## 1
Amino acid sequence: MGAAPTRDQLLILADRAERGPLTSAEADRLRAGIRVMDTARRSAIARLAHDERQQQRLAAIESLVGRARARGASTVALWALGRVFGDTRIPAPRVEARRARQGPSVPVSRPNSARGSLAASGPQNGAQSLESSLRRSS
C-alpha cells in the first residue's frame, strides 16, 4: 500500500461506489483513507483537550499567585503549585505541623522588667519570664 489517498481520490472512489461495486483495491484504498481521516480527527480532539487542560492549569496558577499577592506573600508553596499539576508527592503541611513550627500562638508583649526581651532569652526562658511577669503584675 502506498501513501494515504487524498481527499479528491476518496471522493472519486465514493462516486465510483455509487455507480457500481468497487474492486478490492479500490475498497482497500477507501478504507485506508477513512482510517487516516479518523486518526487525524482523534488527534485534533486530543490536541484540543490538551490545550484546554493547559489553559485550566494556567488559570489555576494565576489564581494561586493572585491570592498569594493579595495576602502580601512573596512566594508560593511548592506543594500548592504541585497540586495544580496533579502532583501529590509533596504533602501539604498539616495545620498542627505549621503551628508547631511557628510556636505558640499566644500574643507576647515585652515586659517592663530589666530582664530584656523575650526573644533574647529563648523560647523556654521566654515562657517562664512571661509567666513570672504576669504573676508580678497581678
Note: DSSP finds five helices and no strands in the chain.
## 2
Amino acid sequence: MASPLTHKSGDALPTYEPVDLDNMTRPQALDAVLADIRAHQVDAGPDGFFTALRHIDLLGHLALRFTADAHHTLAGDSEATNAAQAAQASGQAAATVGRALTHYTQALLALTKVSAPDNQASFSAKLESVPHHTALRRHLHAAHQALDEARTALAGATPQGRGHITAPVARRPAASAFPRGHGL
C-alpha cells in the first residue's frame, strides 16, 4: 500500500489505490488523488487509457466515501462539532468529485479516438484527430477544476458556481483614448 511518504516499488511518483485512501482524512485522501492524477498524466495510447481507468477508480471511491461521510455525519454516527456544516462540506465535495468523474468518463471517447492505432497512419488521420485531442484535454482540465472545487468545499468555504462570474468594475477610459477632430 502506498502512503503520502512511500511509493510502490519501481515507481518514482505516488501511485494510490482506493484502499490506500481509507485510513486518510477526507482532505488527505483528496490531496493523494490530486497528487496521483498530476503525477500520472493521461496521454494517447494504451498506457493513457489504463491511467484514465485508474483515475476513474480513485474518483469513484472518493465520491462514494464523501457521500457516505455526509450520511454518517447526519445520522449522528460521527462526532462533528457542527454536523450540518460537516455534512454539507462532504456532500459538496462528493458532488464536485462526481463532476470530475463525469468529465473523466466523457474523456474516454476522445481518448479512444486518439489512441486508435490507425490514427497515426497518415497526415490526414492526424488532422482528423485534432478535435479529439482538444476534447480530451478539455475534459481533463474540467475534471481538475472540479477537484480543486472539492478541496475548497472540504475546507469549509463555499465555492462559486460555474456560471458565477465576477464582473470587473468599469472605469471611464482615459481622456486620451478618445480621438479628437475626426468627427467622433
Note: Residues 21 and 28 are 8 Å apart (CA to CA).
## 3
Amino acid sequence: MLAIKSFIGFIAVLTFVHCGCSHALATDTNADELQLIGLALYSPAGEAVDGFNRSEQGKGYVLSDVISKKCSPRTLTYAEDGGPSSGKSVYMTAICSNSGNNTIGLVKYSLEFDRLANDLLGKGWGSIDSGPPYSLLWHPTDITGSILDTSRRLHLFGELRENGNQPNPGVFVQRLLETGSTDHTFSVEGVGTLTDEHLGNMGSLSPNGIAYISRPGLVDGGSSILLFSISPDGIERTVEIQVGIDGVVPVGVTVGEDDHLYVYGHTRQTIGRRLFIARLNASGDGIDETFGAKGVVSFDFGEQSPEAIKVKFANGKIYFLGLLSVQNRSNPHEIQTFPAVAVLKADGTLDASFSGDGRRILEFASRRNSPAYPHFKDFSVAKNGRIYLVGAAKDNVAIVAIDRSGEIELGFGQARNSEGGLLLDRSFNLPGSKELKSAAGVASDIDIAGNLIVLVSITASPKMSADE
C-alpha cells in the first residue's frame, strides 16, 4: 500500500562531493580530500566562454569554502530568467551526508552577472529545509531530477530510504519557492513521498503541476507500467498503463514539446533488448493511440542490446541516450561500455537523416567504475541539432559533439585537450592551496546563446609543501 508522507533534511551548511557512480550515497573516501562542485561553459567550438568567471580567465567556476566533505552534485536546471537579481541562472543540486544523515544541497549561479545568486537562501547556496519532525524516520539517498514550473518553483525528484535495520525504499517530490525555502502548501508540508520496494527512476512534472513517477507493473516481466502521481494538494493516484511489450523496464517519465507525458525505458532481455517510448493521453490516465503503433514505439540496435539511460525532446524530435555494456574479449573480467544514440521524429519513426537509420553506437569504450575511458552520463541537444554527450574520462570532464547527421565532430575542442573529437578538460581554478585530482561531467544543458553548460564534480586535495 502506498502512503504519502513527509520528509525532512537536517539544516546544515553545504559542500559538494564527487561520486563516480549514480544512485549511491556519497562517501568520504579520503579524509584529506576536498570535494567541490564546478560549473563550466563551453562555446559551440568547445572553447571556454569569454567573460564567464571573469576573475579566473573564463576557465570555469568552483564553489569554495566547503563545509562538509560528503556531498555529491546531482542535477542542473537552466532558467533564462533567474529571478529579480540574477538574470539567466542555473540551479544545481547535491546529496550530502552529515553524521550518517543525508541532506539536500542547493546552489544557484547567475550566468548573467557571473556570481552566486543571493536571491536563493540569502547567499546563493545552502541546504534545504523539509517538513515536520516525524519525517526524520526517512532520509534522501539520491536526487534524480529537478524541474522549474511556470511559477519559478523548483521541484526536486529523488529517492529516499527509511531508517532502521530493514529500510524500505521509496521516492519523494519536494517543491521549493523561488527563494529556495520549502513550499509548505504542496502535498504534506512541501514534500510528497511514495514508498514501495520497486520505485526509483526519473520523474517528471506535467504542465499543470502534477508530479509523476513510473515503475514496472505488478506482474514481473509483464507488459504494463504503473504510473504514480502526486497533485499539488497532495492527492495520490495510481494508473496502470498497458504498453503491449513484455518485460518492460521503465526508466523515466518526461514531458514532450507537445505537453504530453511520455514514459520510456527498455525491455528486460539481454539479447535483442528493445528501447521503447509511450505517449499518454491529455489526462495522463491512458495511452494516446495516435502516437506510433497504438501509442507505443519500440526499436532495437540490431545484434547489440543497450539499456535506455535518458530521453530528451528538442527541435521537434525525440532523442535517446543508451548504454551498451559488453565483455572485453581480451579480459573477461572487464566490462566495456559504449554510448548508443537514437533520434526519432515527432511521430515516433526513426529519423533516417541521423546516421542513416536513426541509430548509432559510438566507439568510445569505457570500463564501468573506472575513469580511464569515457563514460557518458548525460546529454544535451542544441537548436542546430548537435548532440553533446557529457561524462568523464582519464580524470577529466569528457565531452563529445555529434552533428545532426550522426557524425562525431572531430574539430570540437581542437584548440584544447581534444582526442579525435573527445574533449578532455580539467582546467578548473581551485580556491586556495589545493590540487585537482579528478573532474567529471554530471549533468548539462544549453543556454540561450547556444553554449553548453556542464555541472562538474571535482575531487581535490591539499597541495604538499616543499618540506613534505
Note: Residues 315 and 383 are 6 Å apart (CA to CA).
## 4
Amino acid sequence: MRTPKFDEGFLVFCSDGYLRLIGHECGHDHFDEDSYAAALKEHDDEVAEAVARSMLDERMPDLARTLVEARTLFRDIWGVLDFQERAVAGITKRAVAAMRRSRIGDQLTVDMEADATDERGRKVIEKRVVSTAAGLDALSPPSHLLGDLNLAIAEAAQVWIVQRDEITARLAGMTRPEIFATGKAVRRLDSLMETAHEVRANMGSLFNAEGLAALSAWGRHGHCPTPFWIEVIGKRVYLNVGLRPRNWQRGIFLTLPDGRLVEPVIVA
C-alpha cells in the first residue's frame, strides 16, 4: 500500500477494534519488534504462497509435457556438445579461444594494420570483419548446463502429480513449505528450460554448413592468429589446423549434427 503520507505501509486491524494506516518504518516503533517482524514475515509468506499456488494450478497439468520435452532437449544438446568437443579438438582450444576474443556481436574479426598512423608515426591496428555467423554464443555454452538441467528434471519429477484429476485436491492439501518446495522445483525447471532452448537455438544456427563456413573463413584468413580450415560435404565435416591440404577429403571426418530440435512425442 502506498499513500501520500507513507512511502510504503499497511492497513492494520488493531486490538482496540480500529483499522489504522501505518508506515513500514513506524511499525517498528509502535509495535513490539519481534511481533511486528513476525507479522511482516507472515504477510510476505501468505503473498508468496498465494503466488506459488496460482503458478502450480497453471503449470502442474502440463508438467508431464515439460518433463518429456526437457529430457529430449537434454539428449539433443548432449549430442551437439559431443560434435562441438570433437570439432574443438580438431582445430584446437587455442583457436576457439582466439575466435571468442575476435568476436564483435555476430562478426568475427582480425587485427590488421591500417593506412593511418598515430602521433608517434606507428601504424594503427584496426579490426577488420572477416565473416558473420549467427549463434556465436554457442562457442561459450553455460557451464554445468546439462548437469543442472538433469538435476532439475529429477527434482520436478519428484513433485509431479501424475493423476490430472487429483491435482486440485493434492495442491489444496499441501502445507506452505510443501507448496514452496514444489513451486521452487517447477520454477527451476522452467528457468533452465528457457536457457537450454536458447543454447540449442544458437547451436543450430552455428553448427550447420553456413555457420561452419563462416568459422572456416576466419580460420583461413591470412591474418588469423591460429589458422585452421573446415569443409562441409553433405553431412561430413572435415577440419584440421594449419593450411588445407590437397587431399583433405581423405582425412577423418565428423558427422554434422541435425540442426532441428527433436520433437518429443506426447501420448495423451
Note: The chain is about 50% helix and 20% strand.
